Amino acid sequence: MYVSEINFLDIEKNSEYVTIINKVLEECFKEEKLEEKNLYVNMVLTNPNNIKTINKEFRNIDKETDVLSFPMFEKEEIKNVKSKIPDVLGDIVISIDKVKNQAKEYGHSFERELSYMVVHGFYHLMGYDHIEEKDKIEMRKKEENILNKLDIKK
Predict the structure, then answer these.
(1) How many domains in the chain?
(2) What is the CATH number of the domain that holds 33?
(3) What is the pTM of this model?
């Protein structure tokens, strides 16, 4: 079973965002065979000031960013998770203003950019990163696979 919790922090609620996020996360859970794990993602959509504050508090980086991920499990632990009560896979925080600006900058639709942020955050929760080039290649391949399956190209 897949569940997400979507919170709006100092921005207006938007059903389009909820639809996009749920569609993308559902595909991510399906692709990674997490549907029966009783896990959920806590998603926070916010503004530049809040994400900057969170970035400073938790990563000691005093600047705005587009997406932050806070996993609750190590990569190798996830396959063994099976909880009777819902357990959080992790938290993803996204700056909606940053998504809008990057969509324009990269010539993407808002849907494509938000979807990418969700997939990117999800794979960080799954223990992937992009520090080393080989890891970056693996993570990008997974991200693009999800976007292609959902036919989110532009």
Answers:
(1) 1
(2) 3.40.390.30
(3) 0.93
